[in-house]
Amino acid sequence: MPGRGAGATGCPHCHESPAVDCPEHSPDQVWWPATDEIRFEGDYLPVWYEARGGYLDPATGELLPTWDQALDTIGPDDEPLHVVRFGTKFDAQGVLAGSKDATRCIGYLTKYLTKQLGDCHQPDTDAQRVHVERLAEALRHEPCSPTCAKWLRYGLVAGACKGKAHRYDHLGHAGRRVLVSRKWSGKTLADHRGDRRAWLTEMLGLPATDPTRYRWEQVQPDDDDYLPSGRRLLRSVADRLQWENALTEARRRAQEALAAELSATGRAA
Predict the structure, then answer these.
(1) What's the pTM value of the predicted model, to 2 decimals?
(2) pLDDT of residue 72
(3) How far apart are CA 166 and CA 144, in angstroms?
(4) Which of 51, 74, 131, 148 has the maximum number of C-beta atoms within 10 A of its C-beta?
(5) Angle formed at CA 53 by CA 51 and CA 58, multiple of 5 degrees
(6) Residue 157's closest CA among 34, 37, 70, 43?
(7) What pLDDT was estimated at residue 120?
(8) DSSP state of 206
(9) What average pLDDT does this structure show over 194-214?
């Protein structure tokens, strides 16, 4: 579960809570074409050439390379476009499920899930505001993926970008804020939701839902039971509180039953 913010210094950083032990980590390198030379900007733009199915440089008539062609030009003396590594302030702490530290960490991480990434820190001085604007401007033109249309700015035909990374309120973060690593678990998000539902119904002593008896559909605005977003939010909060209270009571009963069983075992011995 990564959380992301600008921090008090205006430097983007990341908070993560991996569900398993973190492996030994070496720097990750992204071998993409270079972006140090801007080829097209302002009124000087490439021209679409229908007969060739690509863009042309209007000054030279050169057909702009595709993504694969640009990758083929990366040589042994070139440097990776991006390098990601753990910094000097890397702080990894083990957290056990159900502990006070787990509750504190969950509250800290979910705080960022309810905010826009660009609103985690508000600049207080002119220097900070200039810094944030400069960061947002750089991310607006930085290619975010192999299919990002921003590559055309650097003379490369890649595709059409639908990512959110260039928006001011995303600070370069284009994906989901809560990620599931299939490399570790081999499960999809639907699998994890099913596991959580099964665990909760078992803990509360509820019968498992028969999937053949129900059909799940998204509520539409013209449905009779449709609620405005404000009322849905309040109902969701109330449901969460009710579930939390029920789960706390179920855990208490389970602990009492375990203590009674251990006590009976001790007397029998």
Answers:
(1) 0.51
(2) 92
(3) 8
(4) 148
(5) 80
(6) 70
(7) 64
(8) P
(9) 70
Element of type H or E holding 128: helix 126-141
Residue 48: φ, ψ to 5°: -75, 130
30: pLDDT strictly greater than 50: yes
Could you give the count of Cα atoms lying within 13 Å of 252 in the half-sphere of its Cβ?
6
What does the block give as tokens for 173?
A: 């973060």
Please give the share of the chain, as a percent, with pLDDT higher than 70.
Answer: 68
pLDDT at 76 over 80: yes
Q: At what angle do helices 189-204 and 229-268 cross, to 10 degrees?
A: 60
| Tokens (6 digits) for 5 | 């913010």
Task: Say if residues 49 and 63 touch (Cβ distance below 8 Å).
Answer: yes
| Tokens, residue 163 | 């990512």
Q: Is 50 exceeded by the pLDDT of residue 105? A: yes
The Cα 106–Cα 17 span in angstroms is: 9
Predicted local confidence at residue 118, as pLDDT: 60
Nearest partner of 152 among 54, 44, 58, 40, judged by Cα? 40
Identify the helix (H) or strand (E) that includes residue 134. helix 126-141
Token couple for 17: 């809570």
127 three-class SS: helix
- Number of Cβ within 10 Å of residue 131's Cβ equals 16
Question: In this structure, how many other beta carbons lie within 10 angstroms of the beta carbon of residue 178?
Answer: 13
